[in-house]
Each structure stands twice: as C-alpha cells, then as structure tokens.
Design goal:
13 helices; 310 residues; mainly alpha; single chain
C-alpha cells in the first residue's frame, strides 16, 4: 500500500463518514432527513470496500493485462507538469466513463445505485454501487495505462477525483459565481442528480465541468425549476439488496426474453429504456411525449443521456 492509498484509507474515508454524519445531524434538526437512506448508503459504502479488497476481479482483467504488457512507454509522474497532465487526462476519460454509466445499460445497472437516493446530501455521495469494478468500467482508463501511466497511480488519482465529488452533493451550498464555468460545483451536480426531464443527461464532469461544455452536455441549474432528486421512477424500497440489484434483475429478465443477437446486444449496450420492439422508454422518448402533450419542445442538452428505470 503506497502513501496515497494509506491517506485515502485511514484519513479520507473516516473524514467523509464523519462529515456526512455531521451534515445529517444538522439537517435532521432543521427538517426531515432520511436516516434509513443514509443506512443504505453506508451498506453500499462498506460492501464496495469489501468487494474491492476481497474480490480482485473484473471482466476486463485480460484486457488490462494485455494493455500493461504492451504499453508504449513508462511515464513517471515526478513533476507538477506531469501531475497536471495526469489530472487532465483522467478528467477527460472520467467524463466518458461517467457518461457511459448513463448511456450504456450494462454500466448503468451499477451506476443507477448512485442515483437512487430521493434526497441529495453528503450521505448520498457514499452510495456509488458495489459492482462497478466487476463491470469492467476500468476499460475507460486503459488508454492512460497504454500511454505509460502506472495503473495503480491512475486508480489512486481516480479515487482522489471521486473524493472531490463528495462536497458537490450538498444542497445547501449556493451557486459559486465564476467557478461555475470551470468546476463541477454543487449547483452543477444538483442538476446531474435531478430527475426533471429538463435536467436529464447533463453534467458528467468529475472535478471540471469544461468537457460538458465542450461536448454539449452542460445544463445550468434554474431558479424557476427546483430539482427533484432520484430516478425517473423513484426507488421506494428500503431494502439495501433491492437497491443494489434492481437494475441487474431487470436486465436479467429482459435478456431471458431475447430471441435475436440484435436484442441481446441492444439490451446490454444501448441506453437504458431501449426496446427491440421500438417501444422505447428513453429520455428522448419521455421528452417527446411531454412535448407532444404540452405542444412545445422541452429544453435539453444537445447530446442527451438516455435513462429510464424499471
């Protein structure tokens, strides 16, 4: 275990738990705070750590080994400039990892867990989904390894990136002026967690929001449109196993019905809500239905994320 990993495990992890608990106490005194939801988040947090430690497996393991064996060079991160390069490359590839987590159903099955809380708070940031490592989402970071960055260092940098994303889950922090143009702020992340049709498919950045602006997925929070948090169809179960497995069970049911390779690949790789019959329940379909009912189009990012829930 290197120095960064020790700091994350013995310093950052307890601090995150303490701060989320402190926020819960304060918010519960000011009004309603869902402690049972916080308990589900703790369940996910502990389970994810346990799986990471005791199940060192990913479906992408053969590809990881091949990339490590055939990397172009060895890139030492021994200066501020190289650390900055690592940060920017990670931000770029994390944007696509996160976007795939919403647009590709296989990855959404795990990432959806992060969007199940119906309240947004620091405790909700602990709920990421237990099976991310098993899904093979590391493939989005392998171009950095192929270029020469050490995989353990890339994963440690990713953990630091996710640690930054702890504080944007606060709803009590207002907009931050000019920082909104560059950073993933609480305001930007509130939009990302909102289930309003006008807010879906937006703000995938980790630390930075610039790639959302570059690729057309940035949406600003509106004062006239309060965020409704959670899934499009809210998760109401308080059973932590249901929260973790609901999307996987729904995928398994759909796969059991497939009668063609197209349907099989579609259910795995197309956005959630895709149907081989054409009866899609995607964000685009929901927006089209809402626009038809209202007689006017809804605003949306230029390249929307598609997401529906069972």
């Amino acid at each position: 275990m290197n120095t960064i990993e020790k700091i994350l495990l013995f310093g950052a992890a307890p601090a995150v738990l303490l701060l989320s608990l402190l926020e819960g106490v304060v918010l519960s005194r000011r009004g309603h705070y869902d402690w049972r939801a916080y308990g589900i988040s703790l369940f996910d947090y502990a389970g994810r750590i346990a799986l990471t430690v005791f199940v060192p497996f990913t479906v992408a393991a053969p590809l990881v080994r091949w990339v490590e064996q055939h990397r172009l060079a060895t890139v030492p991160v021994d200066s501020v400039g190289m650390a900055l390069l690592l940060f920017l490359l990670l931000e770029f590839f994390y944007y696509w990892l996160h976007r795939a987590g919403h647009r590709v159903r296989w990855f959404w099955c795990n990432h959806a867990v992060h969007h199940t809380p119906n309240q947004l708070n620091l405790g909700a940031s602990l709920r990421i989904g237990m099976f991310g490592k098993l899904t093979g989402n590391v493939v989005f970071l392998l171009p950095m390894v192929w270029l020469g960055f050490d995989l353990r260092l890339v994963l440690a940098a990713l953990t630091l990136n996710l640690l930054y994303q702890f504080w944007p889950h606060a709803t009590w922090i207002p907009k931050l002026g000019w920082l909104e143009y560059w950073l993933n702020t609480p305001s930007a992340h509130r939009v990302h967690h909102a289930a309003n049709l006008e807010y879906l498919d937006a703000n995938y950045g980790g630390v930075l929001i610039v790639f959302d602006r570059l690729f057309g997925t940035y949406v600003a929070e509106r004062e006239d449109l309060p965020c409704r948090y959670g899934l499009v169809h809210p998760m109401t179960s308080r059973n932590p196993f249901t929260v973790e497995l609901a999307q996987w069970i729904a995928l398994a049911r759909d796969l059991a019905k497939v009668r063609s390779l197209r349907a099989l690949l579609g259910h795995l790789a197309m956005p959630p809500g895709w149907s081989p019959t054409g009866a899609h329940e995607t964000t685009e379909a929901l927006r089209a239905q809402a626009a038809g009912a209202a007689g006017a189009p809804l605003s949306a990012p230029r390249t929307p994320r598609l997401r529906t829930d069972p």
